[in-house]
Amino acid sequence: MAKIAEVVKLKSGYANFVELKSAFEAAQENADRMAMYRPTKAHRVAFERICRGLYQPNDKKFYLLSGSYGTGKSHLCLMTANILSRSSGDPEIAGFYKNYAKLDSEKANLLKNIRKDGQYLVAICDYHSGRHFEDVVMKAVFEACKAKGLSSGVETEFDEADRQLGEWEKKGDKGRIRNFYQDFGKALSSVAPGLSVEQLRAGLKNYDSDALGKFRAAFKEMMGGVAFQAQAGNLIPILRKLVKTQEFKERFKGLAVFFDEFGFTLENAGYSKDILQGFMETICKNEPNVIFVGCIHKDFKSYADRFSKADVAVMSARITQVDLLNEGIEEIIGAIVETDKASEAWKKEIAPKTGVFDQLVPPCKSLNLFPWIADVDRIRQRVLEDIYGVHPMALACLLKLSSEIGSDARSTFTFFSGDVGGDKGSYADFIETVDITVGGGKLNLYTVDRLFTFFQKELSQKNPELREGQRQFVNGFYASLDALRKATEGELFGFQEDERIRVLRTILICQLCQIPTSLENIQFGLYCLSPSEKNQVKGYLNDLVKSGAVFFRQQSKTYELAASTGEDPYDLIERYVADTKLHPADMVAAFLEEAGGKSLSDFAEAKGYNLPFGEDKSFRTRFVRAKEIGDALWDEIRKEYAESRNKPAQGLKEPSSTRCVRMKARSMWQEKRPRPLLTPM
Fold it and tell me: In angstroms, what CA-CA distances link 453 with 195, 341, 424, 443, 564?
């Protein structure tokens, strides 16, 4: 029997992940992508909104491009960066405007006129570094200046610190009472053991705030408490000065900063609040020729728990969120999935049965599965035929789940593409393993329930990223599974092969995608065409209701998964953290009582120390909260150590002349949890 792969080929090159910085800097790859790029409707709307900042200087030009994994945010940023770095007359981007004109000639002409001359200095941020926002942006801007042979004309704190070290190194001890470079090296080894001055200077050249912090600490140590006073400012005054220099204004129309995966910076609080908010207001709003484009996977409000309410209000008022929706995404998928309608397999086995597509179109409209497609003929052509092998409800649910619970490994593109995807439950796996037709000659389609396998990790009860409503549905699914398992004990056929599990998975996916779980919709999602298939699913649902695995709501005529049998542990944790009345007065004491009670010893035998020295000493165990680790704690330990030397009869063994203080740091749930601190006595 022929497989679907015989009539469908995957052009996975369209789905390859775009590494924005390297793709922009690779001339040939960049030109090829520009030539073949055909922006969807959603891409065009987002692109035109960002370009508004080019001719409306007062626009809030801190743009956050929001869209789920696989919606093409990086591709769009790459195209935008190219448009800004070249005038519309540049032959390398002629193909882009040509493709755009085929879709919307009026807007294409407008964009060409806006970009008819001049270029922007384009800075691509390296989000992989994991460093703070201000460091990453500053490094990207100065790298862009260097690549274009532009003298920035400004000196940063990093430059000033490195220049100071360079001067000290050059002078050495010639004619001086003190060798500052040598003394700085000694001070650095005190504040940052193992870090050489050369390594520190490399970090300064790389605009690393951590390196600058160590320089400041070593400088203060060396100078007897006198702090380093830099003349240069932070990111904001530096960028303001840069875009106002005569050389910059003569060569560039403005500055464009692109920050892919900016959502990770927001999630990890990788920024200085004052600098980020100042950058939004002082640079992106007040400077007429500076724009910022960052990519996030969720609505900006989803990151609100990282900020105070006041900060959320301030930042929301200073950003422009540009949503990248699913409109036109069938065009991109159609470019990945290449259906060969001229093949013998299509002509003999599929073409005579395509009348089934006519039965699938009406529910697509009644359920509004593809709201951006008004023409039913287009649904039949672009969704059912061109993306052959996928049931329309499964495709609609895929787009929704990719947006709601997806990841870079579980997106619309990884589902379809062969080189990135191919995992169990993916389309690439489906077309390689299933026959074109099933029993009775019915065309084989990827149904809604199969999505559970593709998103199985995301649909786990252990997934902390699930929102409250999603978690309730997932918990309900597993509660329904338990009820079905109990009801099937002793039956002849195995539980895992039970067809009723497919029904439960379909209900879960529909609930997550806000599709009413009526009998007709469940039958449609499971691709039931004949009366016998529909009756079979109806019988499964009746069995599930009788066993308590599913509840039938009479008023709405819908089926619901079972209620969870216990409270959600994540909800319990959140409630505990939020309610300070539940917190113990002394968290360390409560932890010790829970962990060991009275049986917990104050000492630990120092076997690793005693064995080579032939001694008999013990480690004194101390538990403290992470935020308490500091100078005051070390002073207390030194004081206790001094007292123990004078009172050895209290049970502490006489310490040796060489002492050390060792911290045993362990990963715990939260930084505020007690951590053990070990000091040898």
Answer: 48, 29, 7, 21, 21
User: What is the rounded distance in angstroms from the CA atom of residue 186 to the CA atom of residue 403?
Assistant: 53
> Can you give the pLDDT at residue 666?
36
Angle at 181 between CA 176 and CA 183, to 5 degrees: 90
Q: What percent of the chain has pLDDT over 90?
A: 35
- Eight-state DSSP code of residue 444: P
DSSP string, 275-328: HHHHIIIIIIITSTTEEEEEEESS-GGGGGGGS-HHHHHHHHTT-EEEE--STT
Q: Report the alpha-carbon distance of residue 294 to residue 473 in Å, rounded.
A: 32
Q: Is 594 helix (H, G, I), strand (E, B) or coil?
A: helix
The domain locations on the chain are: 41-146+236-323, 157-232, 333-561, 588-680
pLDDT tens digits, 565-609: 555 566 667 767 777 777 887 888 888 777 766 666 777 777 777
Neighbours of 172 (CB within 10 A): 12
Distance separating alpha carbons of residues 548 and 544, to the nearest angstrom: 6
Closest-CA residue to 417 (of 485, 332, 357, 322): 332
* Residues written for the chain: 681
Question: Per residue in 620-634, pLDDT tens?
Answer: 788 888 878 888 888
Q: Which residue has the tokens 């895929």?
A: 398
Contact 337, 10 (CB under 8 A): yes
Over residues 38-76, the pLDDT tens digits come to: 788 888 999 999 999 998 888 999 999 998 776 788 889
Nearest CA-CA partner of 219 in 192, 252, 255: 192
Q: For the residues 519-538, what does the mean pLDDT come to?
A: 95
Q: How many other C-beta atoms lie within 10 A of the C-beta of residue 557?
A: 12
218 token code pair: 């070593």
Q: What is the dihedral of CA 539, 543, 548, 553, to 10 degrees?
A: 20
Nearest CA-CA partner of 159 in 178, 144, 138:
138
The yes or no reply on domain 41-146+236-323 and CATH 3.40.50.2300 is no
pTM above 0.70, yes or no: no
b/e string for 386-414 if b means 16 or more Cβ within 10 A? bbbbbbbbbbbbbbbbbbbbbbeebbbbb
Which of the 8 DSSP states describes residue 234? Answer: -
Q: What's the rounded Cα separation, in Å, for the pair 477 and 484? A: 11
474 vs 463: CA distance, rounded Å: 10
Residue 675: what are its φ and ψ, rounded to 5°?
-125, 140
